[in-house]
Input
Amino acid sequence: MIVIPGHSVNKGERRTRVKFCGLTRSEDVEIAAEVGVDALGVVFAKSPRQMGILSAMELLAPLPGTILRVGVFADQSEEIIREAVDRCELDWIQLSGNEPPELAAALPVPVIKAVHVNSGSDAVALADYPATAFLLDAPATEDLKGGRGVTFDWSNAQSLPWPRRQVIVAGGLNAGNVGEAILQLRPGGVDVSSGIEVKPGIKDRGKMEDFMEAVKWADARLPVDNGTDALSTGVTGADNA
Output
């Protein structure tokens, strides 16, 4: 599993971390915190949920320190990413485009690399990418890299080049299918955007609550994790998901 350094995790605990992505409203941030989310994603990339740096600063300002701040980018400059990290106090960066490994290695906070899964070879192609976690998502379009509410073929993620605790599953998840995704793929985390919305950028309390309950349901049916988590120490602020 992916855990937050500085927060204790009992040996044997098996809990899938949850990231809500595409937040745009302060009331949704408050609800997300209430339902127990682990990380919140703000989209700086081109998207119906795109936010500017100043707006994101205001949105994230009241967020408790126990919830991780993730900035989502796609083929943007290192200068823009660093400005967002500094001004929004981001804990993680998600790279959802075709960013070169050199960019990821140069960033000042841990990186989540999005893998757009068309076939089983897509993950293999990024096996050595310098990221701390890898987010499996549906194939991208020319205009959108994520948040389309589309699933990918989970059979293409049965064999991966990274430990499962470093994997986040995304792509069309909702309360009706996230449990099966966890049971099949056993990721460290799951990521949801459209699956908790009434329309892009507008989240729904009931859907957020139902999603969290579905994750708990699946976790209760998984065997406990008796291994040492590779991300439990030495990573600033982190959780991925």
